[in-house]
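Board notes (copied after class):
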Amino acid sequence: MSRTLAVAGLSARLMAEAAAADGFEVLALDLFGDVDTCAAATRWFGIGDPTQMRIDGPRLLSALDVLARRGDVPGWVAGSGFEGCPELLAQGDALLPLIGTAPAAQVRLRDPGQFFAALDELDVDHPPVRLSPPADDSGNWLLKDLHGSGGGHIRRLVPGQPAALAPGQYLQRQAPGQSLSATFVASGQGARLLGSNRLIVRERGASPYVYCGVVGPVPVAAAMQRRLQSLLTALSARFEMRGLASLDFLLDGEHLQVLEINPRPSASMALYADLQPMAAHVRACLHDELPALRTAAGPCHGQEIVFAHGPLRLDAAQVQALAALPHVHDLPGAGQPFAAGDPLCSVSASGADADQVLALLQARRVALLQSLENPA
């Protein structure tokens, strides 16, 4: 297996750090080029304006063409930011092989008609889904966009609007339960569940369910774990998934309802560093190998995004102070401007269980923001 790997996404930090830890020479392509990413990678390529939060297709393809000409890069891994962009993934794959679920398979997987039909055939519950607005305004419907990620695209359906759904949009009824995810590795015909995680989701502005972080692994009943493993195996074969991916679901008591699958490395992979997730991703994609079955849950870890409370521009001293804290990540460069609500950085924590980790994350987030708002 080649020890050089390219990783690309809105932010490549987690993939770059995981790949470097697994022994790869890392080439990172993302929007931010933050301190952490550049420290993990031997070379960084900017592929978009961070203020736009969108990957620039021509810049991505130009960077992939440069890497393809090197001759020692076997392929690239796509992270967040490629949702609803199968054509761009296919163009990138033509330049340098995509190590992950094929673009055509992602189209089928992200098609709500095909995905939820597959769940129905497998007798797996999910919140009701509509591909057109309801005839009346009864029910709590959420408007979702296949082109979005991180929950920022989710809106509550306003009565009478929209009159019709735009391409890529669908409706899903709001449902009760705790927001969880299952991190897994797929090999095209099989899958291996790495663990289940507790998602941190909060209302931010007009978006009721914005992803703010993740904690795990968290314990689930043995019967539920077997059920998840069986479901992931079936869906991996049905949709020819390959590599790291995550399944989002709601758990209300013992009632499980599936929401969606992200067929790419997700932030939760950082919770399983001891399993060498990026090496497992490459082996599953290129050699149909799955990691060994985990016999015991590891320690609980977590990470949370810190959002700016107001307009902010960090000076060199503030950046240096943050860099000295081992639990602060996604460090911006000095002078980078932030508007209220922009992701500023992230914090991490470890503990005995999810509640302890969540408390540590909250304390660190609050302390960090206070230190920036009230500098010594």
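Comment from the instructor: The chain has three domains: 4-99, 107-123+176-287, 300-373. The chain has a mean pLDDT of 93.
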